[in-house]
Amino acid sequence: MSDQIKVRFADRMDLDGCITLDHPHMPAEVIQRKVEQREIIVAEKAGPLVGYLRLDYLWSFVPYIALIWVVEDQRQQGVGRAMLRYLENVLCEQGHTALYSSSQANEPEPQAWHRYVGFEECGFIAGINGAGIGEIFFLKDLSCHQALSDIDTPFEATPSQKP
How far does Cα 25 stand from its chain's mean position? Predict the structure, then answer.
């Protein structure tokens, strides 16, 4: 099926695609290292990469989604949820019980998506981004590991979901 989403850890063959999908200021050497350390997850549909998730670890142990990105014309089709589900399964197998993520304070749609997939707001750092924009932090409890497959409707930010 051509619209089936395949999620996996990135490999060296994905390096150019990962560099393209990541933040423009992220050095290629960092992305290459993260690919080698299995800290980048990609999603593909019928071949091309349509999603990208970069994992970091706070204090070298606490998993944190540093970036999750879905190609614009593939959004609201389950790509982000599929990458998150894949990551949650990996982290649960490794014994982690929590996952952190964040969103800029001026980005209501990513904030709504985090809440939709089970994250709860847990903190705020004022002025950490350019132009003095803050960052909202989110926590997802993995100990109960509610399967994201239970959420079968596509995400769509509506005014009621926006903060």
Answer: 18
Stated pTM of the model: 0.85
Q: Give me the residue spans of the domains in the chain.
A: 5-150
CATH architecture, domain 5-150: 3-Layer(aba) Sandwich (3.40)
Rounded CA gap, 54 and 134, in Å?
A: 20
Look at residues 41, 134, 127 and name the one whose alpha carbon lies nearest to residue 89.
41
Residue-by-residue pLDDT tens, the chain, 163 positions: 457 999 999 999 999 999 989 888 889 999 999 999 999 999 999 888 999 999 999 999 999 999 999 999 999 889 999 999 999 999 999 999 999 999 999 999 999 999 999 999 999 999 999 999 999 999 999 975 554 445 454 555 544 443 4
Return the H-helix or E-strand segment holding 114: helix 108-116
**Main-chain dihedrals φ then ψ at residue 45, nearest 5 degrees:** -130, 120
**C-alpha–C-alpha distance, residues 131 and 106, integer Å:** 11
